[in-house]
Write a structure and sequence with these properties.
Elements (H helix, E strand, L loop, with lengths): L11 E2 L14 E6 L7 H9 L2 E6 L3 H8 L5 E6 L5 H11 L4 E5 L4 H10 L3 E4 L4 H15 L4 H6 L2 E4 L2 E4 L4 E4 L2 E3 L3 H12 L7 H8 L3 E2 L2 H19 L9 E4 L3 E4 L4 H12 L1
Helix pairs in contact: 1-5, 3-4, 7-8, 8-9
Length: 272
């Protein structure tokens, strides 16, 4: 069925697209050690959705050697209730400086505290919500290997100067201060952060973050100005002197890291 016609000057409906702000980074892998009867599918599916490959093995000497090899970015270990071997396995993995998550069929305070004391970086219920699984895994990987922008991005984090865009929590921080944005405002900032320093046209940005409508260049101009004012009111220390969301007059907008140089450039464009 063809889309319903729209009035002149109105954005056109478009087919739902893949979220262009989804983080893409280097390949990561997880070793999952679980007994044969453990229902691991929800956990595996959650990691696959985050672009993390999973190799599943049953407990034993071979799996233990793989866990300690350093070949994997993360080890997930299913701990049986009352097990005496699981805490020892967690201790050995943690001692090898390998990130490890304890997975529990029933996340009780006693079982969770035992695993954490043994050395687990986190504890999750085996059937935990996929969003919680991905956020927890990315948080662990960020703490362990935040060395390069590519590593950070693969963990769901974008850095532009002193701006931090957390893709998992859908949050933005400026120099450690939380900035409250609406869903659309966040998606605009996140998309621009993925193309930091590059001038983007308003219709390019709106079409990248909108699942419902397709905007023509002229249609997008005035609408995007409204978003720019709202975002600057929240993001900029001084709204009249923006240092992050910069206007390139006649071309579009770019996101920068908040340096004094950005502010000087903006002033020059206003005079030009």
């Amino acid at each position: 069925m063809l889309p319903r016609p729209t009035a002149p000057g109105q954005p056109r409906p478009k087919e739902r697209s893949v979220d262009s702000t989804a983080p893409v980074g280097r390949f990561r892998s997880c070793l999952l050690i679980a007994p044969p009867d453990a229902e691991t599918f929800p956990f595996v599916r959650a990691l696959h959705s985050a672009g993390i490959a999973v190799l599943e093995r049953t407990p034993g000497p071979g799996a233990a050697a793989m866990a300690l090899s350093g070949e994997f970015d993360l080890v997930a270990y299913v701990c049986e209730p009352g097990s005496t071997t699981a805490p020892d396995a967690l201790r050995r993995i943690a001692a090898a400086n390998v990130p490890v998550i304890a997975l529990l069929r029933d996340l009780t305070p006693v079982e969770a505290s035992t695993c954490l004391v043994a050395g687990a970086d986190a504890c999750l219920q085996l059937d935990a919500d996929s969003r919680l699984v991905v956020a927890q895994v990315h948080a662990i990987l960020r703490r362990r290997s935040p060395d390069t922008p590519e590593d950070l991005e693969s963990c769901g984090l974008l850095k532009v100067g002193d701006l931090t865009v957390d893709m998992d929590r859908c949050e933005v921080e400026r120099a450690g201060e939380f900035i409250s944005l609406t869903a659309t405002e966040f998606r605009i900032v996140a998309h621009m952060a993925r193309h930091a320093g590059r001038v983007l046209k308003p219709h390019e940005i709106l079409n990248a973050v909108s699942d419902e409508c397709e905007y023509l260049p002229r249609e997008a101009q005035e609408l995007f100005k409204v978003y720019v004012r709202r975002i600057r009111r929240k993001l900029e220390p001084t709204e009249a002197e923006p240092r992050y969301l910069i206007t390139a007059r006649g071309f579009g907008y770019r996101l920068e890291g908040g340096s004094a140089r950005s502010q000087t450039r903006f002033a020059a464009t206003q005079i030009a």
